[in-house]
Amino acid sequence: MFRPGFVLSMALVLVCTPAPAGAKETFKTVLKKADSYAVRRDYLNAYPLYRKAAELNPKSSEAHTGLAWMIYRTGLEPLPRAMEEGLLAVKYNPKNVTAHNILGAVYFSMGNIAAAQHEFRTVLKLDPKRRCSGCGKMEALLGKEDLKLVPFDSKEALVNPYDKPLDDKSGAKAKPK
After folding, report:
1. What are phi and psi of 113, to 5 degrees?
2. What confidence score (pLDDT) does residue 143 get?
């Protein structure tokens, strides 16, 4: 009924036809999209993408880190879920500084100061110049300095206390006096 050449050519057409636009996305593509939303602080759009990335690659520390942060920032799930995701991120990459930082913030928000301090000490051990956005220097959370909370998006929170101050006129680094 069908010619063998015709059946083979139809099979090739089916196999070689590009997938529709809404086809299965790769882990890297989904994670990149999630990161782009997160950078723009569009957490509600980043949240489902980090969830999908974690489903596509369950052992990805980056996906679990992003999901923990989105849960923490959006409140779409309870804080213990953010803690679970943070713990998975640290499990899959114990040197993931961001995961430890987020886990510390989650513990701090849950009132578990000792666990938060442990995570922040780990952060400083892995990256001594790291700072905690929204609270100035992380040392304050560890009891080494006075804790001064500032709004997350404030100009003060966005200044890295380890950077040298800029000269107001030229924008160059100020020389020590």
Report:
1. -65, -40
2. 58
Q: Taking a C-beta distance cutoff of 8 angstroms, is the pair 83, 89 a contact?
A: no
Averaged pLDDT for residues 98-108: 93
Residue 68 per-residue DSSP state:
H
Q: Is residue 30 part of a domain?
A: yes
Q: What is the CATH number of the domain that holds 109?
A: 1.25.40.10
The Cα 99–Cα 103 span in angstroms is 6
If one compares 173 and 69, the residue with the highest pLDDT of the two is: 69
Residue span of the structural domain in which 87 resides: 25-130
**How many C-beta atoms surround the C-beta of residue 135 within 10 A?**
18
Q: Over 70: is that where the pLDDT of 64 sits?
A: yes
In Å, how far from its chain's centre is CA 27? 15
103 vs 149: CA distance, rounded Å? 18
Tell me the H-state helices in the chain: 4-16, 27-39, 43-56, 61-74, 79-92, 97-110, 113-126
Q: Tell whether 97 is covered by a domain.
A: yes
Supply the DSSP string of 112-141, one letter for each residue: -HHHHHHHHHHHHHH-TT--BTTTB-GGGT
Answer yes or no: is 101 within a domain.
yes
Looking at the DSSP bridge assignments, the partners of residue 92 are none
Domain count, the chain: 1
Q: Judge if pTM exceeds 0.85.
A: no
Q: How far apart are CA 132 and CA 158, in angstroms?
A: 10
